[in-house]
Each structure stands twice: as C-alpha cells, then as structure tokens.
Amino acid sequence: MIQILTREGFTVYAPPNPLRGLAADAAYLHDFLTENPALAGQPVVLVGHSYGGAVITDAAVGDPEVKALVYVDAFIPAKGESIGALLARPQGAGSCIGGNPATVFHPVPFPGAPEGDADLYLLPGKFPGCFASGLSASQAALLAATQRPLAANAATDVSGTPAWKTIPSWAVVGTADKVIPPSLLTFMAHRAQARITDVNAGHLSLISQAGAVAGVIDQAAWATS
Asked: Hey, what CATH topology would domain 2-98+155-223 get?
C-alpha cells in the first residue's frame, strides 16, 4: 500500500506504534505529528489499522494539520470506550480474539510492566485463520513470526474526546474480518459518520486488497485538499 501511494506522489510515513497503552501510544503519535519538522504546514491524512484506529482517534485531537482520518478494519471508539468494551458489544460477537484469553494469546512479561500487564502474542495456531485470514499460508507464517504484541492493559484503556467528531472520516470494512466482526466495523463507522467502503477481505485488507485501501486514502486526500 505504501508503494502504491508513493508512486501516486504522496509522501508516506509509517511511524511505529509502541503498543504500550492507548494514552501513551496516542501521545507518541501526536508528538510525531506535531513536532516533526517535515510535517510542519503539510496536510495529513492519518490512517489507522485495527487497534491503531483507537490510537489515531485520540492522537489527531488538537492537530489542525490532520485533514482526514482513514480507519482500515479498525476500532473507532467514542469517548470513554475501550477496544475491549467495543468487542463486548452485541455487534462484536464471534470475534476470533474473544472468549477465553488463554485459548487465544500467549502472555509474555515485559520490563516495567504495571502489575498484571503483559505482552499478548496471538498463539501460532490461532494467527493464520484469525488475524491473517484470507492470506496465503506463507504470508500468514511470516506475519505470525514477526508479530508485535499489544500490552494487555491497552484493551481496557478508554478513549478521550474522539477526533472524528471534528475531522472527516473514511472507513474500510473487511466483509470477512474475523478479528473485528463486520457488523461492529459498520456500527462504529456509521456512528462516526465515516464514508464506508466494503472490501472482500479479512482483517488485513491493507495487504490482500492494498489497491482498494489505497484508493480510499486517495479519496480522503482529494476530498479534503
């Protein structure tokens, strides 16, 4: 997707997401956006995938350069909501990361973790048919081996005032997403008054349908330029 957007003439940045908790992750991204000299005075289309949707929802607040938000198979929380609470809604029923965490994740302690917190890795047997559904076995194996874990407490951290209240939004809904069920993706997108594009893909539409996802980012860029 980055290659497609670069060929189209966009300048693309993919800053790291620390995955340590919503407040810390959003603050990290907000500083990247507001303190990076390369972005000064430049219009920004901010794109978030999965948990990254919650991060951009908080990080974009107070940054006038962010002109559009694009949610790709992503959480779009309202004020006071966590991603765990969203998955617990009726629309979240059937998520492949729901249920007993012991059957989904392998927790690994990390230095300085708050009491009870740990990095959560999707179990090897769970990854292909859940997070990487719709991709080839070789792609799924590579992604499973290089997966970056999310701190467990990030699932219960609540969002602040959402940027989508004031910034135009777009949403890509993978109609075969097994992580965030399509009914939940659609509910959140409608609530945020986002322009919705359905794609025939699992949770990683940015890989399996990269052209379609890049096309939505194009729409957001031109509509807000």
From this structure: Rossmann fold (3.40.50)
In the sheet with 169-174, reading across from the earlier edge strand, the strands are 44-50, 66-74, 169-174, 195-199
Rounded distance, CA 113 to CA 212, Å?
39
Compute the distance between CA of residue 78 and CA of residue 57 in angstroms, rounded to an integer.
Answer: 9
With cut-offs at 50, 70 and 90, classify the pLDDT of residue 99.
confident
**Side-chain half-sphere of 44: how many Cα atoms within 13 Å?**
24
Nearest to 8 by CA among 215, 173, 207, 162: 215
Query: What end-to-end distance do the CA atoms of the chain give, in Å?
Result: 20
Residues in the chain: 225
Q: How far is CA 207 from the centre of its chain?
A: 14
Span 134-153, pLDDT tens digits: 999 999 999 999 999 999 99
Over residues 159-177, the pLDDT tens digits come to 999 999 999 999 999 999 9
Edge-to-edge strand order for the sheet containing 105-108? Answer: 105-108, 119-122, 150-151
Strand segments, DSSP code E, in the chain are 44-50, 66-74, 105-108, 119-122, 150-151, 169-174, 195-199
